Amino acid sequence: MIVIAGAGIGGLALGCALRRAGRPFVILERASALAPVGAGITLSSNALEALDRIGLGDRVRAAGREATDAAICDRRGRVLLRLAGKTRVPIGAPTPRHVLGPTLAFARADLQAVLLADVQPFVVTGQEVSHFASSGDGITVSSVGGKSFSGDLLVGADGLRSAVRRLCRGDEPLRYAGYTCWRALLDDVDLPKPLRFTESWGPGTRFGIVPLGPRRVYWFAVADAPAGERDEADPRPALRARFAAWHAPVERLIEATPADAILRTDIYDRPPIDRWVQDRVALLGDAAHPMTPNLGQGGGQAIEDAVVLAAALVREPTLEGALAAYERQRLARANAFVTGSLRMGQIAHLRGRPLRWLRDRALGLVPTKLAERRMARQLHFEG
Length: 383
What we know:
This protein is an alpha/beta fold. It has helices at residues 9-21, 45-53, 57-63, 108-119, 163-169, 236-242, 250-256, 298-315, 319-348, 353-364, 368-379, and strands spanning 2-5, 25-29, 40-43, 65-66, 69-74, 79-84, 104-107, 123-125, 129-134, 139-143, 148-151, 153-156, 175-187, 196-202, 205-213, 216-224, 263-269, 277-278, 281-283. The protein is built from 11 helices and 19 strands. It is globular.
């Protein structure tokens, strides 16, 4: 029995992979109910290929919206860098290392529903891990509610503030990125380019527009701010002031969104660590390598973790060998995304006019095909 702490994207994906492999598992979720959470999420070709390995690729693709174009722009809407053209491989086919595959966008609740459909009977809610005890024969996991679960392995997939990680490593401070993010889903909206994903950069600010359907959009706004700040009851006036005179339809999207539909989240990560495994415990996803969202790889790397760990558990003759193989295959790759994502945020949030001019000029000189090839190599999933 594999005990999984956390029913987020990574924990659910691991459950799906273990179910396909015929390995028994249970997923412990601290929330009292599996309600929809969050706003939007994107998955690049690496995550989609990983999901193909466990038979979920087609169902996940059906729940998402594929981009035909993606770009970084300035606040006036001028394109600085095109990140992707149209998909060059059939959807679902393996993507060659040098070809940039598709990126899909989802309402997070829709992606969660696809994964949950396969494993819901194995999810136990209201169960936050409080303690575990490992022996030569297995591991016993206790929850805050007083229940016990026994198995061969505990996987901490319980997010940025992982209880499992804290039990393994003690208290570790989060690293504040220096900026906060507002996110929302908005229906019944017309976009000038309904299949283009854009992120626009201003001094210490960003605004992203991600179409999810013909008249549905996920938008996010990012701005430098002290940690712990709180909005007024209606955050829209302050957001409109921050993004005044930005290109269309930024102000219109903010204004059209109900105030209570806007979520604000300070952005944190943790410095990379060099061990995810301790005896019969393994960390996965944000519990192992929480990252800022600047490369859109938080969910994708958690899915890669899940698929690789499940395959190692099936392939390797011993648990020790499986966990060593998991860590060896995943640690350097995921940690590179943590570092790269933090650096991308620093570049995007430059404030000085000369540095921003140099950055924008440099981006404008990068040929689209070169940018695509570089991203293709970075995103290629070996599995």
